[in-house]
Every structure is written in C-alpha cells, then in structure tokens.
Design goal:
With 222 residues, the chain is α+β, with helices and mostly antiparallel strands. It has helices at 20-32, 39-46, 50-62, 83-95, 104-107, 135-143, 174-186, 205-217, and strands at 67-72, 75-81, 98-101, 118-124, 148-154, 159-160, 196-202. β5 (148-154) and β6 (159-160) form a beta hairpin. α1 crosses α8 (205-217) and α2 crosses α3 (50-62).
Length: 222
C-alpha cells in the first residue's frame, strides 16, 4: 500500500526526519481542510519542526504530486490534496476509515494512565488476525511520543481486549461499546467482525492522535 511513498524518504544529503505516520496523518489533515492548510499549521498538528514540515510539504508536492498550492487573493496561501492525493487517501481509508478524538470520561476505565491525558482512536478494518496481545501497538504509540495504546477487537457481538494469557478474552462494559457504536454510526461507519479499535494516549491531542495512528499502522500491510 505504501510503495508510492518510498521516494519521500530518499535524499542525497540529509535523511528526512519525518516518519510514515507523519505522511499518513498529513494526508488525513489535508483531506479534512478543503480550504487549505499551511506549513506552520501542519507543523503544529504533526508535532514536527519547521524544517521537517517544509521538507514534507515539498516532497508531497514534487515527489508524489499528492498536494498542490492553493493561492487566492482573499485567503492565506496553503496546500490542498490533488486528485491523485485524494485517491491515495481513499485507499488508506479503506483500511483506517476514521481517526477521532476520544472522550476520556467514558474511556478512562479501559485506559492505563488516562487521567490528565488526551485520547484519540482509530478504527482498523478486518485486522484482528494481525493483532496478538497489543504490545507491539503500545510500543509503536510510545515510539512516536505517545504514552501508550489500548487495543479492542470486535468479535461480532462484543468489544474484547486481546488476550495475553490463555484466559478468555475480557469484554468492555456496555457504556464503552455503546459509545463507540454511536461515534462510528454518526460518521456512517459500523463495526464488523474482526475490526480493531485502537485508543492512543498522549499528553496533548496531537501526540495522542499520532500514537493511535502509529499503532494502527502496525496492522496495515505495507
């Protein structure tokens, strides 16, 4: 899926300091901002430096032609997805259709260290066969600056935690299950058997979103 992005990491001088998760999240953000988004806003959303944001935008424009400059006399200059970029984003969304802010007051009982932290969640379609005990996903969340990640599997009836022992899987409480059903249906998505939900935790919303998405990417074929 991500072969088209390999050129973004090529450099004859200094190796890019952005990661795959920054590229994918940037495409999601460009897709949400039809009015265009500038370098400084992207830098803040991705928690990267100014030079890294500039490099990422340049490569997305010149190497993949996924974005283009939007310039109008009445609005600030920014960037938007091209048709090629939108097609690629839609391919990603077939596997990860949604990245949303989570409600800590509802999810606190299933999240380690949820107090005073921020949450985002991703839905990953038909991915439970790639998930074992959630340790890989937790580590991916931490690697990108998050605090951790919690994984849930939909077995066709309940949302359950991946088992780390031979004990039966533990299911989440009804209020958590209903919360996710309501959130997803509001965006025209529905849980199907073998779907996975990952909740990323961070000390701000930007880091929690990166944590959730980086964890989700471990369940997506490259």
């Amino acid at each position: 899926m991500f072969n088209e992005l390999e050129d973004l990491f090529q450099s004859s001088t200094i190796k890019p300091t952005f990661n795959l998760v920054h590229i994918i999240l940037a495409l999601f953000i460009f897709g949400e901002k039809e009015e265009g988004i500038g370098r400084y806003r992207l830098q803040k959303e991705l928690e990267i430096g100014s030079g890294t944001a500039k490099s990422l935008i340049t490569k997305l424009k010149e190497k993949t032609e996924f974005i283009q400059t939007l310039s109008d006399s009445n609005i600030r200059k920014g960037h938007i997805l091209t048709e090629k970029g939108l097609r690629f984003l839609n391919i990603i969304k077939e596997k990860i259709p949604i990245i949303n802010q989570g409600d800590a007051s509802i999810l606190k009982d299933i999240i380690i260290e949820s107090q005073n932290n921020y949450l985002y969640y991703c839905l990953i379609k038909n991915a439970s066969n790639k998930l074992s005990n959630g340790i890989v996903q937790r580590d991916a969340a931490i690697k990108i600056g998050g605090i951790g990640a919690t994984c849930l599997i939909y077995n066709g009836k309940d949302l359950i935690f991946p088992s780390i022992t031979s004990d039966p899987h533990t299911k989440v409480e009804a209020n958590v299950f209903n919360y996710f059903n309501t959130q997803l249906s509001a965006n025209d998505f529905y849980l199907e058997k073998e779907d996975v939900l990952i909740i990323g935790v961070g000390n701000n919303y930007q880091k929690s979103r990166l944590a959730a998405l980086n964890a989700a990417l471990t369940l997506v074929d490259n």
